[in-house]
Write a structure and sequence with these properties.
Length: 421
């Protein structure tokens, strides 16, 4: 994977290695060799580049070192004084001070987990997490995952992990606590409609297929003909590859008049790479058309346009969205809506309109930092408000003891009926 990619939202400017001693006060505190010896660790101070901010240059870092020393000397349980954790914790605190839940530091382990997510394979309960009103929320349970099988739903808040409150947690912190080896168990306290409940889930290997294709007919009209049903689960490393394969098949059937149209399902798709959203939008929108605008007060703004000649420029199209549709899903569905290219059906989307940049730092650590906000082609900034579907359909829950199927999925059936008309 490239060391730097734009990730929409849930998408990721360069912040240097954590400064442990910038400025003359630090040099004064350290001594001639640029390092400082505490009672249990030698810390070398350096900076990638000299800050242009005079306030930072003149910052007296002695309070930091005094605190480090006092903790090291007086804390009762010396076994808990893990130097690496203290170091990473200090960096996390610095990044968290900007009070943006989507800007955060990742330890090497957390950074690897994030990349595994977008690669499509990891071990855990199989739930994509997000933040809503600074609370940990399930953006979407993954298909056939322990979370989905246990009845976890998009919009459920995760209030506790093994009895510990998640209040004030960052996303990586929540992921690291919930993830675990296959076969191990974790007890989570969820909140739904104001009521809490506990679930004990057994972790498993989660494999995410970014794109799935089938051909369906509406239950209400079995003679109406076949309709392509393309389900997108994420905008990750393998999305474009699978997208090309499946849309080629759809295009062939459309040209041969074997299908009547297409349903693109973005429900419970939490997003991923911005580039992937632009790539998929180009399948339906003519070359050169604006897909999304990126606006920033610190860097130059950028407009992303349709980049290729799509194979499905004229196919009748319906897009399914819900509250689990976030980031790249909202960019794609919003662009298709703005150009009148597709009809949106389902429920209001999640509402994440900021852009993050993912940076790889020293020793495998990472930084996700908000660099801009993104705007839809007609100027709509959906942050916090989401995208309203043209046809609102609330998903009907299956009767107790039953599993939702394509035949009982009233949102999907409504979409198929729209194409079949």
């Amino acid at each position: 994977m490239k060391s730097k990619r734009i990730i929409d939202i849930l998408l990721f400017l360069s912040l240097g290695i954590f400064i442990f001693g910038t400025g003359y006060k630090i040099g004064e505190y350290n001594g001639q060799n640029g390092s400082r010896q505490t009672s249990n660790v030698s810390i070398t101070n350096f900076s990638n580049s000299q800050s242009k901010n005079q306030q930072v240059k003149n910052l007296d870092f002695s309070l930091f070192w005094d605190t480090w020393d006092q903790l090291d000397q007086k804390y009762v349980d010396k076994k808990k004084l893990d130097v690496k954790k203290m170091y990473y914790g200090a960096i996390k605190g610095m990044v968290a001070s900007v009070e943006d839940p989507y800007t955060f530091f990742l330890t090497p382990d957390e950074n690897k987990q994030t990349k595994d997510d977008l690669g499509g394979k990891f071990e855990g309960i199989g739930a994509q997490l997000g933040l809503k009103e600074n609370k940990i929320v399930v953006v979407a349970p993954l298909k056939n995952s322990p979370a989905e099988k246990a009845g976890v739903k998009a919009g459920d808040y995760v209030n506790k992990v093994e009895g510990t409150s998640t209040k004030g947690w960052t996303l990586p912190q929540a992921v690291s606590k919930i993830r675990g080896d296959k076969g191990s168990k974790v007890t989570l306290t969820f909140e739904r409609n104001g009521k809490e409940f506990d679930l004990t889930l057994m972790r498993d290997t989660i494999v995410v297929s970014p794109v799935e294709l089938s051909y369906e007919t509406p239950v209400s009209c079995p003679t109406c003909g076949k309709i392509a049903y393309l389900k997108m689960n994420q905008f990750g490393d393998n999305t474009n590859r699978d997208w090309e394969k499946y849309t080629a098949d759809i295009a062939e059937k459309w040209q041969n008049k074997e299908i009547k149209g297409m349903v693109l399902d973005l429900r419970d798709n939490p997003g991923g790479y911005l580039e992937s959203a632009v790539y998929t939008a180009s399948e339906f929108i003519p070359t050169g058309k604006v897909v999304v605008k990126q606006e920033s007060t610190t860097t130059s703004s950028h407009t992303y346009e349709s980049i290729r000649e799509g194979k499905l420029l004229d196919i009748p199209l319906v897009v399914l969205i819900n509250k689990g549709s976030a980031s790249a899903s909202e960019i794609l569905s919003g662009a298709l809506r703005d150009y009148g290219r597709a009809k949106l059906i389902g429920e209001k989307s999640f509402g994440k309109g900021s852009v993050q940049e993912a940076l790889d730092l020293k020793d495998g650590a990472g930084l996700h930092v908000t660099v801009a906000k993104w705007i839809l082609p007609k100027g709509d900034w959906i942050n916090g408000k989401g995208i309203e579907p043209e046809i609102k359909v609330t998903l009907q829950e299956p009767k107790e003891g039953n599993t939702l199927t394509k035949e009982t999925d009233n949102q999907l059936q409504t979409a198929l009926e729209q194409i079949g008309k």
